[in-house]
Amino acid sequence: SRDGETFSFDTLPAANYSVAPSDSVTVSVAAPNTDRFVWRKNGKVIEGETTGNLTVTWERTRTPVAYTVAPIYTINPADGFADRDVEAASAAFTVTNLPRGSVVIIR
């Protein structure tokens, strides 16, 4: 748990990451009884990313980028209805993209 909240995770992401230009960072999570996750960047689902690992590459932005990740569980109702996917509580983290280096010319 983080900040008094309970999450359905075995392994939580760190709260903050930094990425240098031309670099990337891989964020990994684990949750009991599932290997499916939903990742969001600034509140929007990152299509195609459903595993416990997300690789974030550097991008040109001045503000930290907000991400969340939540485990997905399949619920099997005993009443004969179809299985359904349920999104559990999410964990949040930010990625700060470090500025490119500066070149100083001395004449």
What's this entry about, in short?
With 107 residues, the chain is mostly beta strands. Helix content is 0%, strand content 40%.
Kindly state the percentage of residues in helix: under 10%
Query: What percentage of the residues does DSSP assign to strands (E)?
Result: 35-45%
Helix count equals 0
Beginning-to-end CA distance, first to last residue? 56 Å
Major sheet attributes = 6 strands, mixed
Order of helix and strand elements from N to C terminus: EEEEEEEE
Given as residue ranges, the uncertain stretches (5+ residues, pLDDT < 50) are 1-7
Mean pLDDT metric:
84
Coarse morphology: elongated
Q: Total number of β-strand segments? A: 8
List keywords for this structure.
107 residues; 40% strand; six-stranded mixed sheet; mainly beta
Please explain how this structure is put together.
This protein is mainly β and 107 residues long. Helix content is 0%, strand content 40%. It has no helices and eight strands. It has strands at residues 16-19, 24-28, 37-41, 44-45, 53-57, 65-75, 84-87, 91-97. The strands form two sheets. Strands 1, 3, 4, 6, 7 and 8 form a six-stranded mixed β-sheet that branches. The chain has a two-stranded antiparallel ribbon with strand order 2-5. A hairpin with a 2-residue loop joins strand 3 and strand 4 (44-45). It is elongated, with a radius of gyration of 18 Å. The model is unreliable at 1-7 (pLDDT under 50).
